[in-house]
Design goal:
390 residues; alpha/beta; Aspartate Aminotransferase, domain 1; Aspartate Aminotransferase, domain 2; 2 domains; eight-stranded mixed sheet; four-stranded antiparallel sheet; 14 helices; globular
């Protein structure tokens, strides 16, 4: 494999704690190969290679509706769900349909770096809402909403990652979710719930979704197979009111391109209907929980006493807060010289300077040995960076 063939963000002969990629060993299982072969060998392969229905492959929609209803105690119908080409496609489409250039979109501080990128591509005005160890702070959201309304600005979207947040790993308590739903009703904005990590909970079920708590009103919820099956499938789903889903299915890019990845969707439908996916998710929870534990243990063992970090109960990420005398970019540069890749905090903020003392560690794609070694080396780098600043 040449350097150009490596997955996104990967470099040979390094320890990567950089990106939230699934473990490569989990991607092409024998069960996935079997599902691929059955679809390729069946008459439906010819249909799957054509343009698909705008809402997506019906057999996969039906499977997802049954799973969501069973796990979340809902009664959604197929009309409430469409397939998308991953969460990226959903965020881009919803921004285009629900927020015009110059209109206000609210995000958490910090938030997913590539979501910021997409919002800026659409030339919306971004306002960041402060967070704490439990996630978005409803009182700060209310304060920002009141200020915006008093100046004649009316936010169209709140983008939030409520479960096992990227980059912080935090999970928003149900009480806060209900408060935010109340504010959405009062101020008239759409909640876009990026819920791609929901299935990767290490400590029991995740809290009730925004969609469930709001009974589907003013919420569009995004799910994805990228974290629990394979990102290369470019496949996810969007859950919302029947009217909202129809609006998305009727938009220009969906009409022109047909449903999201019909061939991949047929394979995933075959895989899921055979009962493989939920067993695979159970395996992933154990795998990533073990790596989370290795990371937390190494942080406790090696990190200086004035470095703080989050304790995620699921997902892929731990968020580090450095002392004021140590800067993330210096640590990132010095760690790279030692062969350790990680993400500096600036990119996760609308105002980059807000993240100059933060780092994100991703434990999902590194071996336990590399996680421990990488964190030990990172701790040494932080100590050296402190001496340079002093």
């Amino acid at each position: 494999m040449t350097a150009n063939d490596l997955p996104q963000g990967m470099t040979q002969n390094t320890i990567s704690l950089l990106l939230g990629h699934p473990d490569p060993a989990t991607l092409l299982t024998p069960e996935m190969r079997n599902a691929m072969q059955r679809v390729i060998s069946s008459p439906q392969a010819y249909t799957a290679l054509q343009y698909g229905p705008e809402q997506g492959t019906q057999s996969l929609i039906n499977f997802l509706v049954e799973k969501i209803n069973r796990e979340q105690g809902l009664s959604v119908q197929p009309a409430n769900l469409m397939l998308v080409a991953g969460a990226t496609h959903a965020i881009d489409m919803l921004t285009r349909l629900y927020a015009r250039p110059g209109e206000v979109v609210l995000v958490e501080a910090p938030t997913y770096v590539d979501a910021i990128h997409i919002f800026r591509d659409h030339q919306v005005e971004l306002y960041a809402i402060p967070t704490d160890e439990d996630g978005l702070i409803p009182s700060e959201l209310e304060k920002q909403l009141a200020l915006l309304h008093s100046s004649g600005k009316f936010p169209r979207i709140l983008y939030t990652i409520p479960n096992f947040h990227n980059p912080t790993g935090c999970t928003l308590p149900e009480e806060r979710r209900s408060e935010i739903i109340g504010l959405a009703g009062h101020y008239g904005f759409l909640i876009v719930e990026d819920d791609v990590y929901r299935d990767l909970s290490f400590e029991g079920a995740a809290p009730a979704s925004f969609y469930a708590l709001a009974h589907g009103d003013q919420v569009l919820s995004i799910g994805s197979f990228s974290k629990t099956l394979a990102p290369g499938l470019r496949l996810g789903w969007l859950l919302g009111s029947a009217d909202a889903i129809q609006r998305c299915a009727d938009c220009g890019t969906t009409q022109m391109g047909g449903g999201a990845n019909p061939f991949a969707a047929q394979i995933v439908a075959e895989y899921c209907r055979s009962g493989y996916w939920e067993a695979h998710i159970s395996h992933l929870r154990s795998l990533y929980k073990m790596r989370r534990n290795v990371a937390l243990s190494a942080l406790s063992q090696y990190m200086p006493g004035d470095v703080r970090w989050t304790h995620p109960t699921g997902g892929f990420f731990i968020w580090l807060s450095l002392p004021e005398t140590v800067f993330a970019q210096d640590v990132k540069r010095m760690a790279l010289q030692e062969g350790v890749l990680l993400a500096a905090g600036e990119g996760f903020f609308v105002h980059p300077s807000d993240g100059q003392h933060n780092l994100r560690l991703a434990y999902s794609c590194a071996t336990p040995g590399d996680i421990e070694t990488g964190i030990r080396m990172l701790a040494q780098v932080i100590q050296r960076a402190r001496m340079v600043e002093e």
